[in-house]
Amino acid sequence: MAAGVKAKHGLLNISISHVYSFCRKIAPKNVCIQRATEIQSVRAVSNGTVGSDHSEKYCVDLVRSRDYEGFLCSLLLPKEVWRSCLTLKAFNVELAQVKDSVSQKTIGLMRMQFWKTALDDIYRDEPPNQPVGTELWKAVKKHNLTKRWLLRIVTEREKDLDDRAYRTLQELETYAEKTHSSLIYLLLECLGVRDVHADHAASHIGKAQGIVTCLRAIPYHSSRRKVYLPMDICMLHGASQEDFIRGRREQNVRDVVYDIASQAHAHLQHWAVQRRAFEDISRNPAFTHDGHWVADVQRNKRCIMNPLCPPLKTPH
């Protein structure tokens, strides 16, 4: 869902100095200094001036154009896992953009079936002749990635093709767990982390990401006369889908957003407890990679409670 939203709003304009400033805010100073050369190299690859591997360039361009936040944060990852992690993000983008790019559900189901078959072929060492599939096969071979997490993302994205609102807040959390959290589990595996405490932290931050992404997408979905917010929360406060489509700001609309955002905040608190309890988690690049997102939530808390706030009209 998030990547589909990003596709409609284009790239952000940002200079290299802003990237360095951004990195300094969420990573230790010495890390940013040591990575300066790497970042320049990565930017060169993404611009096509270094490296001739078509599949890698395809994945870089895809993530940079559809998930710009994720692309920027990938620059903070260790060089030896950067390509694999970016491939996973490209895989997620490929699946996420299906819903918005097809006119009929049947076509979307066919594309999802392609990826189910592709995963079977990848684990048989017979990758499909498709850039993301080729790169994903390399990542699977290099890091022995768990097939279950990849298949779970495909299956949940396939269910989301039904194009209906979530029945309950728990259903939204389940979607976030099976998509956003599963992606973080795979990033952890790329980094060599297979730990129950890290997975627990990843589960919470993935759920929080999924919930907030749903909120950030309200203006975009409303412009297409669609509302995906949990129906049980809307009914609880007497808010109709038309209220969101028309951009109304009555108290019942704000109460719906507040209740949903509060659930995301609760998951962030659980994640913070895990970070404080286990030092290895707080130092893990996968969670440093997501640190910008948590900081952004904290800085824009007032806007998250008001989905029509200008900074959230262009979710990225």
From TrEMBL:
Key words of the record: Carotenoid biosynthesis, Membrane, Mitochondrion, Mitochondrion inner membrane, Transit peptide
Gene Ontology CC annotation, any one: mitochondrial inner membrane
GO biological process: carotenoid biosynthetic process
Catalytic reaction equation(s): 2 (2E,6E,10E)-geranylgeranyl diphosphate = 15-cis-phytoene + 2 diphosphate
Enzyme Commission code(s) on record: 2.5.1.32
Subcellular location, record wording: Mitochondrion inner membrane
Top-level taxon of origin: Eukaryota
Task of the protein: Involved in the assembly of mitochondrial NADH:ubiquinone oxidoreductase complex (complex I) at early stages. May play a role in the biogenesis of complex I subunit MT-ND1.
Annotated family: Belongs to the NDUFAF6 family.
Database matches in PANTHER family: BIFUNCTIONAL LYCOPENE CYCLASE/PHYTOENE SYNTHASE (PTHR31480)
Name of the protein in question: NADH dehydrogenase (ubiquinone) complex I, assembly factor 6
Organism: Oryzias sinensis
